[in-house]
Amino acid sequence: MKKESKKTNGKNGIKIVKILTICLLIVLVSMIGFFGIYTQNKNQMSNGVKDYSYSMALKGTRTIKLQVNNSTTKVVKDNEGNVIENATDEEIQKNGYITEEVLNNKEEDKTVENYKKSKRVIEKRLNYLGVQEYNVSLNEETGEITVEIPEDTRTDTIVSKLNAIGKFEIIDANTNEVLMNNSDIKSSDVLYNRTETGTAVYLEIAFNKEGKKKLRDISKTYIKTEVENNAIENNTEENSIVENETLENNTIVENNTEETNQTVEKKITMKIDDKEIMSTSFDEEMKEGKIQLSVGRTTTDTTTLQEYISEAQNVAVSLNDGNLPLKYDILKNQYILSDITERDLIMVKIVMAIAALVGIVILISKYKLNGLLAGIAYVGLAAIYVLLIRYTNVIISIEAIFGIEIVLVLNYIFTLMLLKNIENKENSVSKSTIETYKKFFNLILPIGILSIAFCFAKWIPVSSFGMITFWGLIIIDIYNAIITRSLLKIKMEE
Question: What is the CATH number of domain 11-52+341-492?
Fold first, then answer.
């Protein structure tokens, strides 16, 4: 009897350890999911867990108005009409250069078609930058473009890239002949190369079919070459006859000269928005149709690296979706507060937490220890759910909050169904779980189909509701099969 008692106590001890281990993991995940992980960063505490992505209706809106530039720029030209860049006042006066005031946007370019093209380019840039929710409107009479985007930590960076023209040119360094432009670009991207000394950032420009051919031809033309120069004379006599007694014939040395080699370079200049990026010649033929430009130097400093990445992204955004046909100025950059305050969101969270707590108390009062374990598992599911929402970049809208509530209610229904089936002593936990899943799938099938359909909607309130609900149903299916089932199975073991 004592041996059996010890054996029983040993099994119970193992069960308790297993249950406590799972419960402690749930507590840890819940702390991270609901409160975050705070670390000290530059004398302040910052949360290492990614923040939620809120919609404009909840977070507020940044409104940017872009106006067609109507100003002029001073252009310096020589007597032959060639543009002289970076000429000082002394050089202008000394060489008799002519200065002209030129409109940044020609009147003939201010057309409805160019206004619409500018709007399309800005929309493409917002998509490239990962802005999921935005409104872009155009005044076709004035060309004014109004952009509305959510307010977050990236907003200022995004705004700075909206009105960059993105004009790309490769020109002959000597004649200023344009050899390639934006029409030859297929795409541009930011690349990284990690080495022992740090991380290097590159801007890669890939060219389309016509651009590849042009780049290949240019790389063969503007290449470093060596030519012979026979113009150095070392002898004052034009011809000299040298007799050599040991030879049968005389040897005639004509134009005794020294041969030398000189390297001649034909250079190209790459410009973006009329700013010179580089001036070089090619070492070899470019067959791949791509150019990689180094941005900054290899570094291990995180702040410096982010600066290089931001600089490369600025150019990539400008080049990736075509250049603006007109120059725009930012007329207005204003943050408009949401009608729903941060306090309102906190109140919603508190109400949901109280409702969940009441539900767990009901489970405990009805199903005792099984109800307590199921309640702990329920809290863990909610924590993993909010972490998933954070890291899948799902936008939280008012409709999405309603979707979260639906998911939590559905999980509570699943938990009740599972506990009820387990009460039947004839069923094991595994069998009860299978039966619960069958009934639950029949219940949520219409909701699942609707959530998947809503995910592909172009209207953010609908698509965010679909994504929130879809991920919630996935979590319910996977989490309960692993965690909730395991807790109850360990507890029910003989």
Answer: 1.20.1640.10
